[in-house]
Automatic annotation (TrEMBL):
Residues 308-315 form the Cytosol aminopeptidase domain. The lineage of its organism: Bacteria, Pseudomonadati, Pseudomonadota, Alphaproteobacteria, Sphingomonadales. GO terms for molecular function: manganese ion binding; metalloaminopeptidase activity. PANTHER family: LEUCINE AMINOPEPTIDASE-RELATED, PEPTIDASE B. Belongs to the peptidase M17 family. This is Leucyl aminopeptidase. PROSITE patterns: CYTOSOL_AP. It comes from Altererythrobacter xiamenensis. Keywords: Aminopeptidase, Hydrolase, Manganese, Protease. GO terms for cellular component: cytoplasm. InterPro entries: Leucine_aapep/pepB, Macro_dom-like, Peptidase_M17_C, Peptidase_M17_N_1. GO terms for biological process: proteolysis. Pfam families: Peptidase_M17 (PF00883), Peptidase_M17_N_1 (PF21337).
Length: 462
């Protein structure tokens, strides 16, 4: 992961290259202050103030940059991202505008995933100066969390199995002086039977486990963060097609979000008693794979008939949400790459949000809009609960029709969350199919900043 700590620095009037911001409406008036040669230089670059355009303008023996944005007076997280991606190595400052939320995109634009291949002709760091010193640490923390999700999701399953997720949790615990308990082996089968059942086919190389990290004063409000850690999903005996399996290294994207969110909460020192749960498995195929038609025991005591072995994420989350509920939390939030139905409904960029309480949904939606991390609410309709009925068990893990797949999966999870607990569920893609400024193709966080700012507002008076 990129080290962002040096990429934004306090502005103490040190030498820096100016960046001017314009849009298509203000460009002509702004350009009147330029020399004919400078205007010609911008014309040669086809710069007219359009969004994400970048121009280089000679100024004697120096030069300055100009960027096209939607509104120079109200920057978004991404307004400086294209500049950060394309400008040469150097130190920069905005000529007339405050940096505001655009600090975030300046950082994420310089993310590179180089674990397996060094970047060709890498450009050195582009450093941005700002007078808004108090915003630097938060921007660095949030960008680092986003790029941690990218790193974890981008890493192939052979190097990002359950043991690797455990190592990430260990690193997190060490950094923040938290406590970590890992359950695996016979204890996992006893205490978390669905986690064990889903992961048992991969026991030899990628043994299943669940991580439970705790942090904060016991007297503070209890919250729980849960993340689906299916490190690779073959579909099990209901095996996926080759095309369906191609991106399944990203099926631990929920765990990546949960780990990143826990890090943000601890880094901010929020007044909470935090519980992080990461059930980690590989849904493999072997002689001891769980089967369609099997009935699994659960930590909660319910029995689950397996309608489809490829609906395994909700199984491991069921045990984890049960355990989280035992802490009697004020709030539980989970992240999971749970259903293709959510992507059919909302596409890759909008995570599907489901909540029990309207006010919680409103808080998360508002936090997402305020921080350029929009989410979209889907319902948990009571009428669809009957679709999960089983003839021989308490519940089935997959319904028999093609309707409302994301909501029905949410209703399954709802059975494992304690009564009257405020609960939010994100069905996220964790992957960006095409690059955008500040947002590289590949692993991606969706809903992470929305969740963090919502929790911050609740527990730190933000």
């Amino acid at each position: 992961m990129s080290d962002f700590a040096e990429l934004i620095q306090p502005d103490r009037d040190q030498d820096a290259i100016p960046i001017h911001l314009v849009n298509s409406d203000t460009f002509d008036d702004w350009a009147k202050g330029l020399s004919s040669g400078q205007r010609a230089a911008l014309k040669a670059q086809k710069f007219d103030g359009g969004g994400y355009q970048v121009g280089i303008v000679p100024d004697g023996d120096k030069w300055f940059a100009v960027g096209g944005v939607a509104d120079p007076e109200e920057l978004s997280s991404w307004c400086l991202a294209k500049l950060s991606e394309t400008l040469p190595e150097g130190t920069y400052r905005l000529a007339k505008h405050s940096t505001g939320p655009a600090l975030y995109g300046w950082l994420t634009a310089q993310y590179r995933f180089t674990r397996y291949r060094e970047e060709e002709n890498p450009v050195g760091p582009r450093v941005l100066l700002t007078k808004e010193v108090k915003k630097i640490d938060r921007a660095v923390a949030e960008a680092s969390a986003d790029c941690l999700v990218r790193d974890l999701v981008n890493t192939p399953a052979e190097d990002m199995g359950p043991a690797a997720l455990e190592a990430e949790c260990e690193k997190l615990a060490k950094t923040h002086s938290a406590q970590l308990k890992v359950t695996k082996g016979d204890a996992l089968e006893t205490d978390y039977p669905m986690v064990h059942a889903v992961g048992r086919a991969a026991t030899r190389h990628h043994a299943p486990r669940i991580m439970h990290l705790t942090w904060g004063k016991e007297s503070d409000p209890v919250i729980a963060v849960v993340g689906k850690g299916v490190c690779f999903d073959s579909g099990g005996l209901d095996v996926k097609s080759a095309a369906g399996m191609k991106l399944m290294k990203k099926d631990m994207g929920g765990a990546a979000h949960a780990i990143a969110l826990a890090g943000l909460i601890m880094n901010a020192g929020l007044k909470v008693r935090l519980h992080l749960f990461v059930p980690a498995v590989e849904n493999a195929i072997s002689s001891n794979s769980f089967r369609p038609g099997d009935v699994l025991k659960t930590r909660k005591g319910l029995t689950v008939e397996i309608g489809n072995t490829d609906a395994e994420g909700r199984l491991i989350l069921g045990d984890a949400l049960t355990r989280a509920s035992e802490e009697e939390p004020e709030f539980v939030i989970d992240f999971a790459t749970l259903t293709g139905a959510a992507r059919v409904a909302l596409g890759p960029d909008l995570p599907a949000l489901m909540t029990r309480r309207d006010e919680t949904a409103d808080e998360l939606i508002a936090a997402g809009k305020d921080n350029d991390d929009e989410v979209w609410r889907l319902p948990l309709p009571e009428a669809y609960r009957e679709w999960l009925k089983s003839d021989i068990a308490d519940i089935n893990n997959a319904h028999g029709n093609a309707f409302a797949g994301a909501s029905v999966a949410g209703l399954f999870l709802d059975r494992f969350v304690g009564d009257d607990i405020d609960w939010a569920h994100f069905d996220t893609f964790a992957w960006r199919p095409t690059a955008k400024p500040g947002r590289s193709k590949g692993g991606a966080s969706y809903g992470l900043r929305a969740a963090f700012h919502m929790i911050s507002a609740r527990y730190a008076g933000e």
